[in-house]
């Protein structure tokens, strides 16, 4: 069950990355954070990648790299925007919708078909998302779902969850046609290349921002480097939906960090909703 251990390590370090992202949002521009996350991840993984050497690369690698890096660049940008706009404990759990979307995208892109237990997992994930905003049910029982649609941060994170359901499959293709570490280093370097012109256009003082407060940005890259290296190794061992489902247990950590680090309110309600979503994720994984 090495894949399970690696997926749980991924979840923990991804939650630490999200805390560093939230902290940096008060210090840096969204475009600087997004570019730094990807660039520093690639730079920190590069030495180990060079030591291990270049694997044999098959042709599907290049298509996966082009499509995966472009969609990842968009997803990371909206991810940072969502964290800036809303409470971490409210929007980060919405990434648990990724396994839900994977039930649709994985059969198409990599031919992986989950069984009927996936339907129970879907029901639990949707129920948990409903409970994230249950305090608003006094305005009508559809109001918690409307709150997800009406809040910009929540809308952005749902878009991110969908995009990551696509890129996770491209990750699988990339890993199968190279190696886990080589793929993750290459794809994050490509993400940074897509984002660099956008950062130049949208942020005039990007260089000064990085030089003034580099440590939070390096922390983002460091936590993310550990997380994605473990994730890609896990992807080489089992189904995409299993890895991403366990990875999304990071939502539980994010609810706790939101309360104890950022003093966000509504912990009990969000912890219940997030817990149910995570149960749904585990049901899909164990299916």
From TrEMBL:
Transmembrane segments: 61-79, 116-135, 156-175, 181-201, 222-246, 266-286
Domain EamA: 2-133, 153-285
Keyword entries, A-Z: Membrane, Transmembrane, Transmembrane helix
Entry annotated with the keyword Nucleotide-binding: no
A Pfam family annotated for this UniProt entry: EamA
Source organism superkingdom: Bacteria
Family: Belongs to the EamA transporter family.
Protein name per Swiss-Prot or TrEMBL: EamA family transporter
Organism encoding this protein: Phormidium yuhuli AB48
Lineage: Bacteria, Bacillati, Cyanobacteriota, Cyanophyceae, Oscillatoriophycideae
